[in-house]
Input
Amino acid sequence: MLRRLTIKNYALIQSLEMEPSGHLNVITGETGAGKSIMLGAIGLLLGNRADTKVLWDDQEKCIIEGTFNIDAYELKPLFEELDLDYANETFIRREISPGGKSRAFINDTPVTLDALRRVGGRLMDVHSQHETLELGNQSFQLHLIDSYAGNAKIKGSYEQAWKNFSAARKKFEKLSEEANQLGEEADYVNFQLEELIEARLEEDELEKLEQELKVAEHAEEIKVRLQSTSQLLNESEFSVSRALAEVKSHLQTIASWSKQYEGLLQRLETARLEIEDLGDEISREEDRVEFDPERAEWVKQRLSTLYHLMTKHRVNDTAALLQLQASLSERAQLTGNVDGALADAQEKLREAEKVLLQSATELRATRQKAFAPLQKQITALLKELGIPNATLDIELSETTPGPSGADRIDLLFSANKGVPPRPLAQVASGGEFSRLMFCVKYVMAEKTAIPTLVLDEIDNGISGEIAIRLGQLMKLMARKHQLITISHLPQIAAQGDTHYFVYKDNTAKKTVSSIRLLSESERIEEIAKMIGGNNPSRIALENAQELLSGAAQ
Output
């Protein structure tokens, strides 16, 4: 539902703001006062392409903002798909700079025009008899039938079956495409895999072997250094251990005279024990160091093998080689079992198709049940709106399964007696089409949450009692759904919960279109003018009061 609409610097509009009610909003005004300009601005908010010629002041940017309550529209999945922050109160903004640059935002996040159209189309439905209407669109006709049938659960089951079928088909097609390639590369994959298996790779092996080789290559020097270190620490006449023992003797003599001396003795003892332990470990290391020419040669050859494999496969360590080996192993298994894998994928595809066709049949049955009551209700509404000989048929034909089912729906319409129903584009005039579209929207509004519906002079070509009935139907529809209608008929203007008046202000150097919400007395005056002209008579004023009183009942 549209909470607030702001238009700045657009065409004849310098600045305009309105907060429509959640029910029926009527907009009236003189011809050329700017009613259609408002629709153009709303179109920009919904993703229509922009032109700098629309700027009222070509030195300032145009800003159009809409605030919507979208709690009832179940749009969280769409917002997630578009990576947008979802909020029940959502803000949409469109900006057009003097230089021609256009920007769009949803909840202050920049979006493309395509994203704006996808979200905007779920928030507002602008209907003008001068535009190509969506009523002839196949997806819209299916949506109409599904909304009326109330088959959301069965349709959801079908959509899941379609997803499963699509995934199974994609997997089968991919395997089919890869089958020849897998056969051709089988020998190459197996050769590479065998080479890696024969290498008996171990993780972190490279680092360990490189370290071992360094020790082997410097074994003699390492042994000499360790022996010298061991002697200095423990074995020579002037070793560190002997010196520390003498220091300990001196400190023991004085330790009982001061806590500080006692602390020094304790620290010395800790250091002495650590040095003794260090000496023992160095001695053990020195015993272990031996130069083994055969082992050194083996390490060199092993490293050469690893370096060769790493260079060949363009990796940096044995862990990456092991990952490659695992990948090649999977590939080899697939290569060796491609026929079995293909047969398995084909069987799963058959099973998924069977479930899909069963689900499509169930979905078709729910749709067919809705045809008769939907035709009856829409035909009755059309008769109320001045098309007494209206006939609406719904034709169903089976088609290849797709995301929405395996059905093609065609609405066939005739407005005249003796004329067989035919596709809408061939038989309906603008006025008839508009009334048919309104009846469809009216029926859908009873079944589901529809977007804010904007009707542009849908009442062209009707008058009198039919106009009153159209206004009453709008009023009924607007009890649950927000409607904004641009009208030139007093019978419809009187039905509005709110009444906005669009007018031109020529007092300044440049004409400006403005809009204002009419008070009760102003509504009587405006409706009287719609009945009797700019200087309405007393009778016109009484008729206006009567229309408003009748609408309030």
